UniProtKB/TrEMBL annotation:
Protein name (record): Adenylate kinase
Domain called Guanylate kinase-like: residue spans: 1-208
Family named by the database record: Belongs to the adenylate kinase family.
PANTHER family: NUCLEOTIDE KINASE
Gene: adk
Domain comment in the entry: Consists of three domains, a large central CORE domain and two small peripheral domains, NMPbind and LID, which undergo movements during catalysis. The LID domain closes over the site of phosphoryl transfer upon ATP binding. Assembling and dissambling the active center during each catalytic cycle provides an effective means to prevent ATP hydrolysis.
Amino-acid positions noted as binding AMP in the UniProt annotation, renumbered to this chain: 31, 36, 57-59, 85-88, 92, 155, 166
EC number: 2.7.4.3
InterPro entries: Adenyl_kin_sub, Adenylat/UMP-CMP_kin, Adenylat_kinase_CS, ADK_active_lid_dom_sf, Guanylate_kin-like_dom, P-loop_NTPase
Organism: Sneathia vaginalis
Function per UniProt: Catalyzes the reversible transfer of the terminal phosphate group between ATP and AMP. Plays an important role in cellular energy homeostasis and in adenine nucleotide metabolism.
């Protein structure tokens, strides 16, 4: 089962990916993890990626695509995988189809967690981290019971201004990718405003036992 998981920042992709990994025993694949691993292992593509990152530049598509192809050929991906944060553009989606075709595979389902922007903003701007324990809370949904509010801090990128910009970028980049997969009949929109355990049940119902 080969899945691509989409959703804006704060939609709960990480939470749902963990549940799907456990349920189906397939790996989660994110370009961030792939890049870190390739760089730490000193692979040819990893060193090439690092040369761009060290200069503060974006890693080009051909390098990212090459790293993804290498990752998809590994043993733990034979039963399937969950792509998270890739493909980010229509060009990457087209290249991914080529890569998978070469490997005799295809994307089976594209799951898109749908959460209104105002909910995302509330979720992210309400996050706080304890200076003392490092625990993460939410001032509305998960307030601390044994820590003081003055010991909690907000991350610099959790402000409303930054979140709105991230949502704009997500919409600009991702909407065309979803359209690409909609044309293939692979996209399933999932209500991401439900409780996490209810969303997991919905995903399993879509994917099957």
């Amino acid at each position: 089962m080969n899945i691509a998981l989409f959703g804006p920042p704060g939609a709960g992709k990480g939470t749902q990916a963990k549940e799907l990994i456990e349920k189906y025993n397939i790996p989660q694949i994110s370009t961030g993890d792939i890049l870190r691993n390739a760089i730490s292992q000193g692979t040819k593509l990893g060193l090439e990626a690092r040369s761009y990152m060290d200069k503060g530049n974006l890693v080009p598509d051909e390098v990212v695509n090459g790293l993804v192809k290498e990752r998809l050929q590994q043993e733990d991906c034979q039963k399937g995988f969950i792509l998270d944060g890739y493909p980010r553009t229509t060009k990457q989606a087209e290249k991914l189809d080529e890569i998978l075709s070469d490997l005799g595979k295809k994307i089976d389902k594209v799951l898109a967690l749908d959460v209104p922007n105002e909910d995302i903003i509330e979720r992210i701007t309400g996050r706080r981290t304890s200076k003392k324990t490092g625990k993460i809370y939410h001032i509305k949904f998960n307030p601390p019971t044994d820590e003081k509010m003055e010991d909690l801090v907000q991350r610099a990128d959790d402000t409303e201004e930054v979140v709105k910009k991230r949502l704009e970028n997500y919409e600009l980049q991702t909407a065309p990718v979803l359209d690409y997969y909609k044309a293939q009949g692979k996209v399933v929109i999932v209500d991401g405003t439900k409780k996490p355990e209810e969303i997991t049940k919905d995903l399993i119902r879509i994917l099957g036992e």
